[in-house]
């Protein structure tokens, strides 16, 4: 009987998906990594942002243009309006580490196809070869930064929490992080390099859990210097590290050492722009374009969604709106920050990251639709704790990106990745299967899916009057309502 049971278990385990394994072995890790890389390659075969749409094209052209500028102009002119760098045409608006990344990629692309980066004459350059090279720069960045960081986090997380990590296995958690459909669609479909800043952030979180606080400070400082949106996590990092330092004997010295590490990292990154106050201000001005208004495109945050009823841009000045955003964001962040300073804990830190990033996404100034990747990353790290809420959040986040992906002609990729995510999500040893979910949660799971299906139909079939541009607001407003529904669903 024992032999028969063992053979049955072996057959059962051989028919499972790799992410259904209860332990994260090196072989399972390699399989999940290779599968995640394959998915990215397949998505990258599709169109990208702004393909064939002059005169401004889209984010693909922005990244190509930054390579052109960083390759042919000195660092002092990267954020300055010059004859070679017209800031009105996709001017660089990310921190210096993004510029250095653009230069590194430019050296690679220029070696194989210099005409694609020719100064002033390559605007809108599009060819099969250049698309292939550009796509490879994203894939390589993902493989070198995000993938290793995700694996390190899962290993550290499982060691730290052991059997109390939650419902899903460590292999399933790795699959949830690496096969996040929103990140794949934005980076490898729409075309960006969020994988770098997010990978540095995950690495910093893994270092925190491993008690390597100096390494964590360096990595998170690099993440901020790659994309300023990484500041969404800053309150959680600051409060946790401050709380840990306050628990030690010589807390002033501990805080000072961390401060030196952070300041030193910033000095190295910003060194080309520290020769004068004016040069540093030029960079800061590009990173915080307040003149664009409280929001620029349709995004499922509080200000944009409520603008259907309250015309924030007309009722308040930019200064008043900045102050209002600051107050609301700090108010939402403060409770979790206070508790981490008072009683820091690893699990509280992870939830603090989720709270902080959501606070910035919902209430901060000048939020983009792609910023949902920040709270979504935090949620993915906690997927074992409450997989139901994580799955709902992924679904709502994808819905909020639908108008953007529709403009990019990525609906096929959108649909397939959503189905793939559902397949993996419900494959974890039967723990997320339909029979294991209570009737109440079944209802809470089905209702948003039905509503989103209806919203997709409305968006694709109804045409508003030419002067009425509220259609985008409506779908994003509904997406935000579903997000609130998702947050409060465990209370019912």
Keywords:
492 residues; mainly alpha; 67% helix; disordered N terminus
Could you please describe the fold and organization of this structure?
There is one protein chain. With 492 residues, this protein is mainly alpha-helical. The protein is 67% helix and 0% strand. It has helices at 2-14, 26-44, 59-72, 96-112, 128-161, 170-178, 181-191, 194-209, 213-226, 234-246, 251-270, 277-287, 302-306, 312-315, 318-342, 346-363, 373-381, 387-407, 411-425, 439-461, 471-488. Helix 18 (387-407) runs parallel beside helix 20. It is globular. The two termini are 46 Å apart. Mean pLDDT is 86; it is low at 1-15 and 475-492.
Report how far the terminal alpha carbons are from each other: 46 Å
Provide the low-confidence segments as ranges: 1-15, 475-492
- Report the sheet with the most strands, covering strand number, pairing sense and barrel closure: none
* Strand-residue proportion: under 5%
Please provide the count of β strands. Answer: 0
Counting helices, strands and paired strands, the structural category is mainly alpha
Q: Mean of the pLDDT scores?
A: 86
H/E order of the elements?
A: HHHHHHHHHHHHHHHHHHHHH
Rounded to an integer in angstroms, the radius of gyration calculated over CA atoms is 23 Å
Total count of helical runs of at least 4 residues: 21
Helix content: 55-70%
Principal-axis shape:
globular
């Amino acid at each position: 009987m024992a032999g028969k049971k063992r053979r049955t278990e072996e057959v059962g385990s051989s028919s499972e998906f790799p992410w259904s394994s209860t332990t994260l072995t090196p072989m399972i890790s390699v399989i999940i990594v290779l599968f995640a890389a394959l998915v990215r390659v397949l998505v990258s075969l599709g169109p990208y942002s702004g393909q064939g749409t002059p005169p401004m094209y889209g984010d693909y052209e922005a990244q190509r243009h930054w390579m052109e500028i960083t390759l042919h102009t000195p660092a002092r002119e990267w954020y300055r309006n010059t004859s070679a760098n017209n800031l009105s045409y996709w001017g660089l608006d990310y921190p210096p580490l993004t510029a250095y990344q653009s230069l590194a990629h430019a050296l690679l692309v220029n070696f194989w196809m210099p005409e694609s980066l020719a100064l002033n004459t390559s605007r809108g350059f599009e060819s099969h070869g250049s698309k292939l090279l550009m796509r490879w720069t994203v894939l390589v960045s993902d493989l070198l930064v995000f993938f290793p960081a995700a694996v390190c986090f899962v290993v550290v997380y499982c060691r730290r929490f052991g059997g109390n990590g939650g419902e899903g296995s460590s292999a399933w958690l790795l699959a949830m992080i690496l096969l996040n459909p929103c990140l794949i669609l934005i980076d490898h479909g729409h075309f960006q390099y969020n994988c770098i800043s997010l990978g540095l952030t995950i690495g910093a979180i893994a270092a925190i859990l491993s008690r390597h606080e100096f390494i964590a400070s360096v990595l998170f400082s690099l993440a901020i210097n790659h994309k300023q949106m990484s500041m969404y996590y800053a309150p959680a990092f600051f409060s946790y590290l401050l709380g840990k330092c306050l628990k030690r004997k010589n807390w002033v010295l501990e805080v000072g050492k961390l401060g030196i590490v952070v300041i030193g990292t910033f000095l190295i990154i910003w060194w080309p722009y520290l020769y004068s106050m004016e040069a540093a201000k030029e960079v800061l001005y590009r990173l915080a374009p307040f003149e664009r208004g409280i929001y620029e495109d349709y995004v499922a945050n509080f200000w944009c969604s409520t603008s259907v009823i309250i015309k924030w841009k007309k009722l308040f000045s930019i200064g008043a709106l900045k102050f209002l955003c600051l107050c609301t964001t700090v108010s939402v962040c403060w409770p979790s920050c206070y508790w981490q300073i008072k009683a820091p804990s690893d699990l509280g830190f992870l939830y603090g990251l989720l709270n902080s990033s959501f606070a910035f996404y919902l209430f901060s100034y000048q939020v983009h639709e792609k910023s949902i990747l920040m709270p979504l990353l935090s949620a993915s790290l906690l997927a074992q704790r409450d997989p139901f809420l994580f799955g709902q959040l992924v679904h709502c986040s994808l819905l909020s990106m639908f108008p953007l992906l529709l403009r990019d002609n990525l609906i096929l990729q959108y649909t397939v990745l959503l189905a793939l995510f559902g397949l993996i999500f419900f494959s974890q040893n039967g723990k997320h299967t339909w029979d294991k979910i209570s009737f109440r949660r079944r209802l809470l799971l089905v209702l948003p899916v039905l509503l989103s299906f209806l919203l997709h139909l409305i968006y694709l079939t109804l045409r508003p009057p030419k002067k009425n541009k509220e259609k985008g607001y409506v779908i994003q407003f509904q997406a935000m309502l579903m997000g609130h529904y998702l947050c409060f669903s465990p209370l019912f």
